Amino acid sequence: MSGSERQYWVSFHRISGVGSARITRLLERFDSLEAAWHASEREIRATGLPGDVVEEILTERRRIDPEHEMAVLERHHVTALTLDDDDYPRLLRHIPLPPPVLYVRGTLLPSDELAIGVVGTRRATAYGTDMTARISRGLAEAGVTIVSGLALGIDTVAHRIAVDAGSRTIAVFGCGLDTIYPHRNRHLAEQIVDNGALVSEYPIGTKPDARNFPVRNRIISGLSRGVVVIEAPSRSGALITTSFAADQGRDVFAVPGSALSSSSAGCHELIRNGATLVTSADHILDHLDVARVEVQTQARLLLPETPSERILYEIVGAEPRHVNELSIESGLPIHEASGTLLALELKGLVRQSGAQHYVRS
Q1: Distance CA 346, CA 294 (A)
Q2: For a tag site, which of 134, 159, 262, 318 has the least CB within 10 Å?
Q3: What are the helix (H) ranges across the chain?
Q4: Is 106-287 in CATH node 3.40.50.450?
Q5: Burial status of residue 154 (CB atoms within 10 A of its CB: 0-12, 13-18, 19 or more)
Q6: Residues 161, 164, 167, 172: is their CA dihedral positive or negative?
Q7: Residues 263-305: tens digit of each pLDDT
Q8: Quick check: 265 and 271 in contact, CB under 8 A?
Q9: Which of 200, 154, 158 lies closest to 177, judged by CA?
Q10: 290-360 topology per CATH
Q11: Distance, CA of 191 to CA of 7 (rounded, Å)
């Protein structure tokens, strides 16, 4: 994408009410967002966007200077990835309503597709801290990228273990990347930039707001192949992340705690509702069959091996088919079908031709 077009993505993204669906609408009407930005009022109204959104666009584009927006990003060493960019994270691209613009400080690599979200309470107990360290260390040593939210407690421990192991880690913000929140994690954030990335869907200048953090949790799960909750009370925000994970077809793992501890009540609730009980990184790696997928990919032995892989590979053909349809025809539960399709995709045997639609490669 040209620098000129990118600045208009960033500028439209600053306008309230203009998300991925409405940007798609603008692109359907105009050849580019640059053309949309300079379109007449009559042309903007002809897109069929709601009246209040049209008024917001007409007002804000008089105030926003696209070139200035890019200069601000450059000053903060932030890159803007758009849905039109080839290096926009593939897993995130296919969630419902992906961020049209993802702000990145640091680097995102293709290897980050092998990622696990690690979340939990801000008020971690000694048990929660120890389990987070054990599991995060095991994942890091296996080459798994750890995704979390830089919050105090479980998030901080997960990021810290990855940094200390020299492994990849991604922190997802609920504010602009010019604000490190919480402030006490500013040094950790700088270390993450050196071997990973800070990411946010919120433009520079967006301050931390309680309403932003539940929404950003869909990005934690969206960047990950699965999410593990290590310690969470029954009303923890970490449970919001698992709800997004389930909707996105990701695996949900939960670490049990004492039956007498309210700090693990949310984890126990997840397990009762079907989350996979895990007590080590090996349990997660075995469940996802991570080691085998990595070895096979390196060796170029791209063959379906498990019964589930063979069933789905036979069903997937040249015409795009939705994961729900494939789940029904194969007889596999939707979460198993989604995980198996992801494994086949990582092997290069199938690919997505649209949101959750698969064809043979």
Answers
A1: 9
A2: 318
A3: 3-13, 20-29, 33-37, 41-45, 51-63, 66-75, 90-93, 126-141, 154-164, 186-194, 212-222, 238-247, 265-272, 281-288, 290-299, 307-315, 323-330, 334-346
A4: yes
A5: buried
A6: positive
A7: 999 999 999 999 999 999 999 999 887 644 443 444 334 567 7
A8: no
A9: 200
A10: Arc Repressor Mutant, subunit A (1.10.10)
A11: 28
The set of residues, in sequence order, having a beta carbon less than 8 Å from that of 129 and lying 6+ positions away, is 154, 157
CB 79 within 8 A of CB 104: yes
What are the tokens at 223?
A: 């960047």
Q: Would you state the structure tokens that stand for residue 269, as one six-digit string?
A: 């609730």
List, for residues 42-57, the tens digit of each pLDDT value: 999 999 999 999 999 9
Verdict on whether the full-model pTM lies above 0.85 = no
Structure tokens at 216: 């950003």
Compute the 3-state secondary structure of the chain and give helix, strand, coil in percent, each to the nearest 5: 50, 15, 35
Q: Where are the domains of the chain?
A: 1-71, 106-287, 290-360
Residue 70 burial (10 A CB sphere; 0-12, 13-18, 19+): middle
